[in-house]
Design goal:
Layout (H helix, E strand, L loop, with lengths): L1 H10 L2 H21 L3 H7 E8 L6 E3 H14 L1 E16 L6 E14 L5 E13 L2 E8 L2 H7 L12
Parallel strand pairs: 1-6
Antiparallel strand pairs: 1-2, 3-4, 4-5, 5-6
């Protein structure tokens, strides 16, 4: 059995091993999010981390991201659960987003404190990994759907909905 396992690892390319390590890093970050462990979340982020999304123009650096998570853990979120979560590693060979990326698609259940409100969202986050840290992320989900599930009503100018 040991020979078989050693043989399997010997056949794994360095690129495949690096991609798997990157996926495991993102899985650990997701676990920290589910555990509402903002300190661990911060440990996975590069000092020059930049998070973008979900809205166009949204961006946040590491210090603000950690403080934002801390505030949300202490004041907003009771529980976050990733289900149907899938991960994929890809290398972008050139251009502005060149590098090693891990994408996570998931159905998220978020339970809010004090009112037991719960929302379900489909989310996609893409993580750029450099030197064993998350350097950048792009997050996409439907913010309007979250607000609707929380009971907010959007009223357009002139009273139209």
């Amino acid at each position: 059995m040991a020979v078989l396992v050693t043989g399997l690892f010997a056949c794994t390319s360095g690129t495949d091993k690096k991609k798997q390590e990157n996926v495991e890093l993102v899985k650990s970050y997701v676990t920290a999010v589910e555990n509402l462990d903002f300190e661990a979340m911060g440990n996975y982020l590069d000092v020059n981390y930049l998070g973008m999304g979900p809205s166009y123009g949204d961006s946040i650096g590491k210090m603000d991201a950690v403080e934002n998570w801390k505030w949300c853990v202490e004041n907003l979120y009771e529980k976050i659960t990733y289900s149907r979560s899938r991960f994929a590693a890809v290398t972008i060979p050139d251009g502005d987003n060149k590098g090693e990326w891990v994408s996570n698609w998931a159905e998220l259940s978020i339970v809010f404190k004090n009112n037991d409100r719960k929302v379900m969202i489909w989310a996609n986050t893409n993580y750029l990994i450099e030197n064993g840290k998350i350097k950048r992320s792009f997050t996409f989900y439907n913010e309007a759907d979250v607000l609707k599930q929380l009971g907010f009503v959007v009223v357009l100018p002139g009273g139209a909905q």
